[in-house]
Amino acid sequence: MPELPEISNLALQMTKQLDGKRIDTLDLTQPKCLNVSVRRFRRIVGKTIEQTNPRGKWLFTKLQPRDNLLLNLGMGGDLRYHENDSTTPKKYQLQVTFDDKTQLTVAFFWFGYIHLASDKELTQHKMTSKLGISPLDKEFTVEKLASLLSGKRGTIKSFLLNQENVAGIGNVYVQDPLFKARLHPLRKIQTLTNSEIEALHQSIHEVIHHSIRLGGLKYERDLYGQHGRYGPHQFLVAYKPNEPCPNCKTTIVKIRTGSTASYICPKCQKL
Ligand SMILES: [Zn+2]
Prior knowledge:
There is one protein chain. The protein is of the alpha+beta class. It has helices spanning 4-18, 38-42, 142-149, 156-161, 175-180, 194-213, and strands spanning 23-28, 48-55, 58-64, 67-72, 78-82, 94-98, 103-107, 113-118, 253-257, 260-264. The protein has a four-stranded antiparallel beta sheet, covered by helices on one side. A four-stranded antiparallel beta sheet has the order 2-3-4-8. A two-stranded antiparallel sheet has the order 9-10. Strand 3 (58-64) and strand 4 form a beta hairpin. The longest helix has 20 residues, at 194-213. The radius of gyration is 20 Å and the shape is elongated. Bound molecules: zinc ion. Residues 245, 247-248, 250, 265, 267-268 line the site of zinc ion.
């Protein structure tokens, strides 16, 4: 499942390739991905694409006039740009052809969302209106993280995975920041010290930006079908059970934390 680094790269690539293009035709094969009627959706034909921004695990593309295309790739799925139609996949949920004959296709593996919201409706959009701050925002400071944590109950991992607190971190990018900050995923929020919050803030920043620089996860693809380069060589403890901790050589273990799996060094990340 793409998380913030992958979504952020896709947003940059979409802006680079699509900004200024006019939607000429579209082919929609699965109307149940929509939040509006097919008729309403078809009204984006003729509109011009502007900037795309990452919003948690969503991509927000501005359409002029007055509309926004909201994409969520769900459990993966391919979002692709095509210079010519020879690279267009046979199966897709949405194919958009632009005035210069280039195309964008959206193909979900399992299920995803193709939503539309006018500028007025955007803040009311159910699935995204409650999304929390992005770790890429300038406003995501140590103070901001501390204030979000203040008064919260529960564990640090479930806090980070809750998209209403911080948007865009999933089970991949939660692992190494916790390790770098020497925090056990089940640490109670109320017991965190200021210096631990500071370390966590810095680690989140480092891990997310490291992955963005490498084009995102190795297991995901970008707008051109290329794999990212962030994978096992970059992971510290994530998805490395039975390997030595990079810090103390203790064997990394995989543990269950609620409904998710966590990878930790039991010595560096004591509960
Ligand atoms: Zn260790």
